[in-house]
């Protein structure tokens, strides 16, 4: 598959290299230049939309800011193009950082509104600052002169192709690295990403800055390609066009960006000719009818299911043939296309093709997903405990902890001491405050009162990612895996902290980065071996059965080299026959010097493996001691059963040794 891809890319590049000689028509050459420029922008937009899952309606404005920075510098200040272009990139990157600020506070439709406002304001500013931008009249910027030779359309064509290919290589390397994994983790679960030491704050800013930088480069090139820019070039319609391109081409693939760019560049040309548009509606209708017929015969699709797309396509043809002026309805057509794509091709054209390939070749996995190392270290060697500064006494000391939600005290003056190297059970009936305790310990909640000291140091005021990096790892009651990532990639996010390489290392594939990636993959493979998921390394996490997802969460948390591991109901969903294996695993984790806090409703697991057990009820600690002592405590039995009962016999706390 990789060879087929390489051949295809080689043929494409060769075709592009000879295109101006075979088709010397400047119109077609210019179209390909615009496709290359849009593709560069879409590589960047995909970082925000595809990878981090945010919506940006401000990329047309960033594109405009990049274009105008070059235009103003070249025309008004006489700055040479080779300085103006990096200035455009730097300026839009700075605006990207500005856009990241609201993205840290709001997401989804709210962020879309903020970025839309940014786009509108930017356009108004460009319009109003006419002493710099020439206002609505726009700026005329000729192609640069290099060594006495004015750059021609064909020269610029080659420059655009080379820049697009370089951008593709740069963005591809970034997104296939630990940086891309961190971005993708944010999309799936910001809380889990934070708890794996991936700072949501830094990663979001990075995503917006990188994305905006590509928009700046594209904008700067657009200025030279068009030789004229005006505020209207960067309007709302362009934003919609960019979003359509990313969605239609397919998220998280560079080929999707290129396909999307090609479609949206050609689309307005197609939509400017009414006759051509009508022909397209008929061709689309025939394709849909043939597809529907095939689906009806070959699959279990019913006529009822097909009635919606068939009616929609019939309406599309009627719409095409009743239109008088197509230009007026362009935005409506784009909007309808987005609707259709979101509904029928949610993963875009590339996503659809990938699904088809997987259908016909179920064992196919993308090359980068495969564990490339032979010689894995032994599974147990992959488990390491973080190095703590020497500190006498308990690893964790919680004093008078109160966590209040409105009028409810989920934790009420709780004291808890956890000895180094022990397994400490934390039990209690539903709603007693166990998960709240986990969330406070990992920095998700800021406690209302009280102190938490870990290895002698206060945790108060420290963000979740910092707490994680100090050696506290966790799993979640409601599994929070990075579902679209493979099993091994999930563990690699846990190993994010092992990378010292920077962006430059990644882009130039430096030896340092290469070595770190190799070691991380080797460790991840060892960890998967340890949690019994090695054979599923290349499976998407969302496809695992629930019990295995829990094991994967443990593996991902072990990647952090934790000194303290918080396990929130690890046995939930694990078949009873496999529970002894789980308790064994917890013991092995302890034998590596990792302290464990275990929340569990399976009493046989918690009592079988814990050195000490604390019991919560209505936010208060009601008992503490060895498993034996706790299970005989009448207060504990009352809390669980709601009334005094005799021990043992009817107790839910009846213990089965594991
Ligand atoms: N973010 C929140 N906002 C409001 N109330 C909350 C929040 N988180 C937890 N609570 C409440 O705090 C109490 C303790 O909840 P918590 O999830 O910690 O209990 P638990 O012991 O983990 O229960 P379970 O065993 O069912 O998971 C519950 O009454 C819950 O509704």
Automatic annotation (TrEMBL):
MF terms from GO for this chain are: ATP binding; ATP hydrolysis activity; L-isoleucine transmembrane transporter activity; L-phenylalanine transmembrane transporter activity; L-valine transmembrane transporter activity
- Cellular location of this protein? Cell membrane
State the taxonomy lineage. Bacteria, Pseudomonadati, Pseudomonadota, Betaproteobacteria, Burkholderiales
Question: Domain ABC transporter: where?
Answer: 396-643
Bilayer topology reads: Multi-pass membrane protein
So which domain of life are we looking at? Bacteria
Ranges annotated as spanning the membrane: 7-23, 29-49, 56-75, 81-101, 108-126, 156-175, 205-224, 230-248, 255-271, 277-296, 308-327, 333-353
What's the protein here called?
ABC transporter
UniProt entry keywords in alphabetical sequence: ATP-binding, Cell membrane, Membrane, Nucleotide-binding, Transmembrane, Transmembrane helix, Transport
Q: Cell membrane: present as a keyword of the record?
A: yes
The coiled-coil segments of this chain are none
A GO CC annotation given for this chain:
plasma membrane
Share an example GO biological-process annotation for this protein. L-alanine transport
The primary location reported for this protein is membrane
Signal peptide, first to last residue: none
């Amino acid at each position: 598959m990789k060879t087929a891809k390489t051949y295809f890319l080689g043929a494409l590049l060769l075709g592009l290299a000879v295109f101006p000689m075979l088709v010397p028509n400047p119109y077609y050459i210019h179209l390909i230049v615009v496709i290359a420029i849009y593709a560069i922008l879409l590589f960047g937009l995909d970082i925000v939309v595809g990878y981090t899952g945010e919506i940006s309606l401000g990329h047309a404005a960033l594109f405009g800011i990049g274009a105008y920075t070059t235009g103003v510098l070249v025309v008004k200040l006489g700055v040479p193009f080779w300085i103006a272009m990096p200035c455009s990139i730097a300026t839009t990157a700075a605006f990207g950082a500005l856009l990241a600020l609201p993205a840290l506070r709001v997401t989804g439709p709210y962020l879309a509104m903020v970025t839309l406002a940014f786009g509108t304001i930017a356009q108004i500013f460009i319009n109003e600052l006419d002493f710099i931008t020439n206002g609505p009249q726009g700026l005329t910027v000729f192609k640069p002169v290099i060594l006495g030779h004015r750059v021609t359309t064909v020269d610029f064509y080659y420059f655009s192709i080379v820049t697009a290919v370089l951008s593709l290589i740069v963005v591809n390397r970034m997104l296939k690295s630990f940086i891309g994994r961190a971005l993708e983790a944010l999309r799936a679960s910001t809380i889990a990403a934070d708890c794996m030491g991936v700072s949501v704050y830094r990663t979001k800013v990075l995503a917006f800055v990188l994305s905006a930088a590509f928009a700046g480069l594209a904008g700067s090139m657009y200025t030279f390609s068009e030789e004229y820019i005006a505020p209207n070039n960067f309007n709302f319609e362009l934003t919609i066009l960019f979003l359509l391109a990313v969605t239609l081409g397919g998220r998280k693939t560079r080929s999707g960006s290129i396909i999307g760019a090609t479609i949206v560049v050609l689309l307005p040309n197609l939509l400017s000719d009414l006759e051509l548009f009508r022909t397209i509606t008929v061709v689309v209708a025939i394709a849909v009818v043939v597809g529907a017929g095939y689906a009806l015969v070959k699959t279990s699709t019913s006529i009822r299911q097909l009635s919606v797309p068939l009616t929609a396509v019939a309406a599309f043809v009627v719409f095409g043939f009743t239109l008088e002026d197509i230009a007026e309805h362009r935005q409506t057509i784009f909007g309808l296309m987005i609707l259709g794509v979101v509904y029928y091709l949610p993963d875009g054209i590339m996503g659809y093709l990938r699904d088809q390939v997987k259908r016909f070749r179920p064992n196919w996995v993308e090359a980068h997903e495969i564990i490339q190392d032979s010689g894995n270290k032994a599974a147990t060697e992959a488990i390491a405990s973080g190095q703590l500064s020497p500190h006498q006494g308990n690893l964790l000391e919680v004093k008078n902890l109160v966590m209040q939600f409105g009028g409810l005290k989920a934790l009420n003056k709780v004291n808890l001491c956890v000895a180094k190297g022990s397994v400490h059970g934390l039990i209690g009936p539903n709603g007693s405050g166990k998960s709240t305790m986990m969330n406070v310990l990992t920095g998700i909640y800021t406690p209302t009162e009280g102190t938490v000291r870990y290895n002698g140091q206060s945790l108060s005021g420290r963000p979740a990612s910092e707490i994680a990096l100090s050696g506290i790892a966790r799993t979640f009651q409601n599994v929070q895996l990075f579902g679209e990532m493979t099993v091994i990639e999930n563990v690699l996010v846990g190993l994010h902290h092992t990378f010292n390489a920077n962006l430059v290392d990644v882009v130039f594939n430096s030896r340092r980065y290469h070595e770190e990636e190799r070691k991380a993959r080797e460790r991840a493979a060892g960890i998967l071996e340890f949690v019994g998921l090695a054979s599923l390394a290349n499976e998407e996490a969302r496809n695992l059965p629930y019990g295995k997802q829990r094991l994967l969460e443990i593996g991902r948390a072990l990647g952090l080299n934790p000194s303290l591991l918080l396990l929130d109901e690890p046995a939930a969903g694990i078949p009873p026959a496999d529970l002894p294996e789980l308790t064994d695993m917890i013991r092995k984790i302890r034998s590596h010097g990792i302290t464990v806090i275990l929340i569990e409703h399976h009493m046989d697991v918690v009592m079988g493996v814990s050195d000490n057990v604390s019991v919560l009820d209505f936010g208060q600690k009601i008992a503490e001691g060895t498993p034996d002592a706790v299970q005989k405590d009448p207060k504990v039995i009352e809390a669980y059963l709601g009334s005094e009962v005799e021990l043992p016999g009817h107790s839910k706390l009846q213990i089965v040794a594991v």
